[in-house]
Amino acid sequence: MKNIFRNHTFSLASIGTITSCLFLFGIFFCVLVNFQGLMKNMETSVGVTVFFKDGVTEERILEIRDTVELRDEVASVTYVSEDEAWNQFKEQYFPDGDEGILTNLDEDNPLTGMANLEISLSDASQQSDLVTYLESFEEVDHVNSLDSVAASFADISRLVSYVALAIILILILVAIFLISNTVRIGIAVRREEIAIMKYIGATDIFVRGPFLVEGIVIGLVGSLIPVAIIRFLYVEVVQFVTGQFPVMNVLMNFVPVQRIFIILLPVSLVIGLGIGFIGSYITLRKHIRV
């Protein structure tokens, strides 16, 4: 701890390096989590509608609904009866309530036999598998689905995952490189101190220990600072956006701050400690010999 304060320039440079990299990492992580949440909500809007053959009873349709609900890619299944289908038709095409022309049809539902299941997906990439499964029921007449939309969501999610992984790896490598250079400067400043300890019989572990502890402490401090800043900024930005642009509440739901930082905090700590330790260790291996 004395060395950290004694060599405050080196310590501040190291902390600033880790803080900068983890700040960028944290910002990117928050954006990524919310983007994935948006994509997940959009995936659930991708629906599959199942229509049945004439004569299929409501009880059998409900049995199929209960079976389909058990599949992993299914978010929800809604049964739409013939009467509900007719009411939806009237609400869609006669939104102003001008239904006089259809009054006589209420007692003789023209959508008889149009009971269906509306299925929302939790994973749009598995829509084709679900459609194949649904078509295997002999009671099913046909299945309406949007294959191109589901494929687009799957491709976008996959692309975002690859880009996220690449950016995270780049940030970590950059941080290790910068902290290694910073540690190298610190060792150069204390080269005489290291040489004296080696000449009077200090072992490599004895010489290396303080530097490794310094790296760990610096990594810890450098990881806590950006997390605290990002948490404050995230809350403020979400409140500002939702307050100034109410339409955003309709388009997407921001991920709660607790859900983000229950992951971001330990990950940042591990990365910060790892960067401090690895950066110090790699550099010491090259410069501990005198």
TrEMBL record:
The lineage's top-level taxon is Bacteria
What name does the UniProt record give this protein? Cell division protein FtsX
Q: Known Pfam families for this protein? A: FtsX (PF02687), FtsX_ECD (PF18075)
| CC terms in the record's Gene Ontology section | plasma membrane
Supply the InterPro entries for this chain.
Answer: ABC3_permease_C (IPR003838), FtsX (IPR004513), FtsX_ECD (IPR040690), FtsX_firmicutes-type (IPR058204)
The record ties this protein, via NCBIfam families, to:
FtsX_Gpos (NF038347)
Q: Keyword annotations for this protein?
A: Cell cycle, Cell division, Cell membrane, Membrane, Transmembrane, Transmembrane helix
Q: What is the lineage of its organism?
A: Bacteria, Bacillati, Bacillota, Clostridia, Lachnospirales
User: Major location, coarse class?
Assistant: membrane
Q: How does it sit in the membrane?
A: Multi-pass membrane protein
- The record places domain ABC3 transporter permease C-terminal at 166-286
Q: Which Gene3D superfamilies match?
A: 3.30.70.3040
Q: Which organism is it from?
A: Catenibacillus scindens
* Every FtsX extracellular domain range: 46-143
**Transmembrane regions:** 12-35, 162-189, 210-234, 260-284
What the protein does comes down to:
Part of the ABC transporter FtsEX involved in asymmetric cellular division facilitating the initiation of sporulation.
